[in-house]
Amino acid sequence: MSEVDYALHQKVQQVSNLVVRLSEQVGNVSGQVAAVESHQQQTRTELQELRAEFLAFVRTAQLTANVQRAETRIGVIQDQVDHEFGHHRTVRRTAVGMLQAFDLGLVSEDTVRQVGDQLMLQTPRYWLAPALVALASWSADDRALCEKAVEEAFRRAPDRTSLFFALVLRRQGRREAAVRWLRHYLAAQDPAALGREFAVILESIAQGAFGLAGRELLDRTLTGWRENLLDDADAQQRQITRWRGEVDSLVPASTAAEFPRLAQVSPQWPRLDDVLRRARVHRPLTERYRAVMDHAVRPSERIEDAVDDILDQLVSNYDNEELPLRRDLAFHHAVIDHGGDLDAARTAADADAASYDETLDYLTVQTTAALNPAAIGTSAATRQLAVAACHEWFAQAHAGFTRDYRAAVPPDVEAHFGTGYTVAARTFQLPSWTGSFTLAMEELEKSLTAHWDRHAAPFIAGYAFPWVRKAAPLALTLAGILVIIGSFRMTAALIIAAIVGAVWGLVLYNGSQTARRLQDDARTILDSAKLESVHQLRAASAELTDWKAKLAAAEETEPACRELIRSLRTAMSGGSRFEGRTVAKEETAS
């Protein structure tokens, strides 16, 4: 072999060795790429789960922080109330105690002087202080001081003072004078702008505090007010809206945990969820108001005790100056009640905002006494009367609530698939597929499977090894070797062509094997995804059937709720359940 042939043979051998090593490295890299892609997919999934857990943690931390801030604010506001209005409590504690002292004849001139000096100094703007001074001086037969104290009490709060003396006179058995004070009070009232003390009137009706004459006066007056206000459609709608808010407040949390597959694949899920949650309101609504109406309220044996209770309510109810602080307190208590959810707390507080207005129309007073008696300080007995009086608004709110969620039931429930999948560093995006559950499940499965096959096949085929494109350079290279080198050394050209062809072919073979593995992996992943989507479709269909059954079960409780509301028309048609006691006492007295 000549030196040229030997040198050429050495070069060819070196090239062959390099190609073999390159081929081995390509095979190793292909395996590593597949492993990296697998790890990437796992890492992506873990990152998504970690993100969801982190967001849940952040949300929980926010809710906890909101509750803690609300608790702190409640303490601060309560301290402010105690600091600014704490002296009022002293006067309030004195009021009923002084009335009880009258019963025992324990009020003396010294007591009058002591009460007057102390209370007037401690509460220079509070109406109850001069009212109590007037009461004490009246008992001690100090006419001048009594008249002066009455004038001062009227200057500070004429409405509350009128009610206070009407109740005191009723307590002392001076029925005619008590009704006269009550008549003056009612004549001065605007039913569209009643003071917060008017809740005492409702309490007096519930307790039968003013006797037959007082009851007739109240019935006549309040019936006239109600008829006039009912001519205002906006006023009625405001009450219906508040009752609708009461019904809405009982809507439970999302039912997604009960129907996870349906929630995942159905575009109509938000409506389905809302419908079922609202249908489940009838039972707790029925239970709540049956408990309210069935609550046994034991009347006091003596009318004096009943009036004492009403007087205690009148004097203990906070004044208008306290309303801004009380409104803030109500909001922060709502934050705690709703577990730190500020939006839910704000909605609840806004729904009851009317309870903290300085003036309320008569219809709103009734609604507030029925929905939130604590806001105006009325008793369980008054709440029963108020709920019965509001039965028309309650019925309309419930009917509208039921009508709205029934109308929201989607006429057609569909399944939707269109998820993206990462396969060997490529992303396969399944084109959107939507199928209606009104079709037979066999037909839906067939359609979904065909959709998968139709769009997955081209994607999988894209991993096929491009033999024509990859082999063309080899053919050109071999032809060049035979032409160029074969023109002066055919044997060497054949040897070189054989070596290059063998090595290059090995590289192409390894590439084709790698492509086949990727293609098989893609087929396996997409076949698994297709099977999973079919399983999801079946599970969603089964959950839709379950959803319909649970909706039907919830709907079965609606007639009982409607019947309870209808029964409110006659629940208190005979008036207060305490009036029999009042009538008997008056007949005895006469």
Structural class: mainly alpha
Tell me roughly what share of residues is in helical segments: over 70%
Q: How are the strands of the largest sheet arranged?
A: 1-2
Discrete helix count: 24
- N→C terminal distance: 150 Å
Strand content: under 5%
Determine Rg (CA atoms, Å).
43 Å
Could you explain the architecture of this structure?
- By secondary structure, this protein is mainly alpha-helical.
- It has 24 helices and six strands.
- The strands form three sheets. It has a two-stranded antiparallel sheet. It has a two-stranded antiparallel sheet with strand order 3-6. It has a two-stranded antiparallel ribbon with strand order 4-5.
- Helix 1 runs parallel beside helix 3, helix 6 runs parallel beside helix 8 and helix 16 packs across helix 18.
- The longest helix is centred in the first third of the chain and has 102 residues.
- It is elongated.
Task: Give a brief description.
This protein is mainly α.
Task: Provide tags for this entry.
590 residues, two-stranded antiparallel sheet, two-stranded antiparallel ribbon, elongated, mainly alpha
Write the layout of secondary structure elements.
Elements: H1 3-104, H2 109-122, H3 128-139, H4 143-156, H5 158-171, H6 175-187, E1 194-195, H7 199-207, H8 211-230, H9 233-248, H10 260-265, H11 269-279, H12 282-294, H13 303-316, H14 323-337, H15 342-351, E2 359-360, H16 362-371, H17 373-376, H18 380-389, H19 391-407, E3 414-417, E4 420-423, E5 426-429, E6 433-436, H20 441-461, H21 467-484, H22 490-555, H23 558-571, H24 579-589
Antiparallel strand pairs: 1-2, 3-6, 4-5
